[in-house]
Design brief:
This protein has 351 residues and is an alpha/beta fold. The protein has 2 domains: 212 residues, DHBP synthase (Alpha-Beta Complex), CATH 3.90.870; 110 residues, Threonylcarbamoyl-AMP synthase, C-terminal domain (Rossmann fold), CATH 3.40.50. Helices cover 32% and strands 21% of the residues. It is built from 11 helices and 17 strands. It is found in: Cytoplasm. Its main location: cytoplasm.
Length: 351
């Protein structure tokens, strides 16, 4: 089992070849994408796909995303591809948009959780693209972490969760977006966003003005999901995450401050994930032993997204008793951040 650093600008082909040989041999390889690290296998190899589920402890009701290396390869995995799918692909691929389409009959059951549709995307990452091309097959890959844990945005996160369970981790450094792809269902008459992600709702509305967004989520259930990322409790740190929300951001921030102060006075170990704008206010609590993670500016939500899971994992490593965070704006990638926070949260405190 090894972590192999690979340079994004001049990737070493022998490393890519070695990783591709593992994929062709029915083994698993963790690799970087622009969203989070993926745990990849040959889409058409049934036992390799089974291995993904067992290594991750992922329920078999949760389907996988199939990663392709060009728009042309869409027809290898999907049938009856609607015109709108090609329009979206030309606009947003390669990129963090996953399309749900009717599947080709030879896609293994486990990839689609037994369902009739397949989730597919063309990733915008040099290493991922080279791995797919050299392996000569579409690569099915969920995030390379233990199921329900925060997604891995560094090779070290993958190592922490899957050490000893997979033969190779390609280390391409920190992932660029830090949150998973947007999942868009095109199998019904009304296109619907099933999971907000790296392509914003506003961007999709520029192509599909009346796109719907899914409101409710599944608990870990025995019901097969239509798409990945639908289960409610997900992306969670080990420490309970407490999410503060309400109409007035000042009131919400203050309530979080008071709560943190109270917990510290009870000798709890408390972590807080803060935007830059709150750092000054929380300084006294940092002096009292509160552990602060800086997510970045509230005006640069793309940076916050990139830092989110790594901050969660750092507070987990510090063995805090709980992690506090407050709601952030919902524009652009903010919607995806909000989605991940709601699902990572042990409790939501309405102020």
């Amino acid at each position: 089992h090894k972590i192999v650093p690979i340079d994004l600008d001049t990737p070493d082909r022998t490393i890519i070849n070695e990783a591709a040989a593992l994929i062709q041999d029915g083994q698993l390889v963790a690799f970087p994408t622009e969203t989070v690290y993926g745990l990849g296998a040959d889409t058409f190899n049934q036992s390799a796909i089974q291995a993904i589920f067992s290594v991750k402890h992922r329920p078999s009701t949760d389907p996988l995303i199939v990663h392709i290396g060009s728009i042309q390869e869409l027809s290898i995995v999907a049938i009856k591809i609607p015109e709108i799918a090609l329009t979206l692909a030309h606009q947003f691929w390669p990129g963090p948009l996953t399309l749900i389409l009717e599947k080709q009959s030879n896609i293994p059951h486990a990839v689609t959780a037994g369902g009739p549709s397949v989730a597919v995307r063309y990733p915008d990452h040099r290493i991922a693209q080279l791995l797919i091309a050299t392996s000569g097959c579409p690569i099915a890959a969920p995030s390379a972490n233990r199921f329900s844990r925060p997604s891995p945005t560094l090779a070290n996160h993958v190592f922490a969760d899957l050490n000893g369970k997979i033969p190779m981790i390609l280390d391409g450094g920190p992932t660029n977006i830090g949150l998973e792809s947007t999942v868009l269902d095109l199998t019904h008459s009304c296109p619907c966003i099933l999971r907000p992600g790296g392509i914003s709702m506003e961007q999709i509305q520029s192509v599909i003005p009346d796109v719907q967004i899914r409101k409710q989520f599944f608990d870990v259930s025995h019901e097969s999901q239509h798409s990945p990322g639908q289960l409610f409790k997900h992306y969670s740190p080990k420490a309970p995450l407490c999410l503060f929300t309400g109409h007035s951001i000042d009131d919400v921030t203050m309530a979080m401050y008071v709560h943190m102060e109270k917990l510290l006075n009870m000798n709890q170990s408390v972590g807080a994930m803060l935007v830059e704008e709150d750092l000054e206010l929380f300084k006294p609590l940092a002096k009292d032993g509160g552990l602060i993670q800086n997510l970045g500016s509230v005006n640069k939500l793309d940076i916050v997204a990139k830092n989110l899971f790594a901050c969660m994992r750092r507070l987990d490593s510090a063995n805090v008793d709980c992690i506090l965070i407050h709601m952030l704006p919902k524009n652009e990638i903010g919607l995806a951040i909000q989605d991940r926070l709601f699902r990572a949260a042990e409790k939501v405190i309405q102020v």
